[in-house]
Design brief:
By secondary structure, this protein is of the alpha+beta class. About 30% of the residues lie in helices and about 30% in strands. Among the domains are: about 35-75, Pleiotrophin/Midkine, N-terminal domain (Heparin-binding Growth Factor, Midkine, Chain A); about 80-135, no CATH class. The radius of gyration is 27 Å and the shape is elongated.
């Protein structure tokens, strides 16, 4: 008789575990709003140009604020919410001292207005710097 009680209690405990796991998953979802078409603004850092910040979203009369992060190496030209797939860097243009590459839009986060294709430039690396770094690295073993 005691064995039967023990088995029934064990069975009830096993059945209760999955229902608790479900309720924990549901807690992460926000309820109370039937809005499906949210419009999100840009991520605005709390201080300076990059780091932790927030973005506001609106849907009808509802508004929400989400935490977000602007990477410190983001390109202000096209924003942190536009993700691009870039080609390899081109050859150095001797007249301008820069090299360029093109990127095509891969993903626009939070309904950001992104350009389909962008072109970015950066200064050419000097060969003397590369040789100097190579020499410095050889001495460290």
């Amino acid at each position: 008789m005691q064995l039967r009680r023990l088995l029934v209690l064990a069975l009830l405990a096993l059945l209760a575990v999955p229902s608790e796991a479900k309720s924990k998953k549901d807690k992460g979802k926000k309820s109370g709003s039937e809005c499906e078409e949210w419009t999100w603004g840009p991520c605005t850092p709390s201080s300076k140009d990059c780091g932790v910040g927030s973005r506001e979203g609106s849907c009808g009369a509802h508004t929400r604020r989400l935490k977000c992060k602007v990477p410190c190496n983001w390109k202000k030209e096209f924003g942190a919410d536009c993700k691009y797939k870039f080609e390899s860097w081109g050859a150095c243009d001797a007249s301008t001292g820069t090299k360029t590459r093109q990127g095509t839009l891969k993903k626009a986060l939070y309904n950001a207005q992104c350009q389909e294709a962008i072109r970015v430039t950066k200064p050419c690396a000097l060969k003397a710097k590369a040789k100097l770094r190579a020499k410095k690295g050889k001495g460290k073993d």
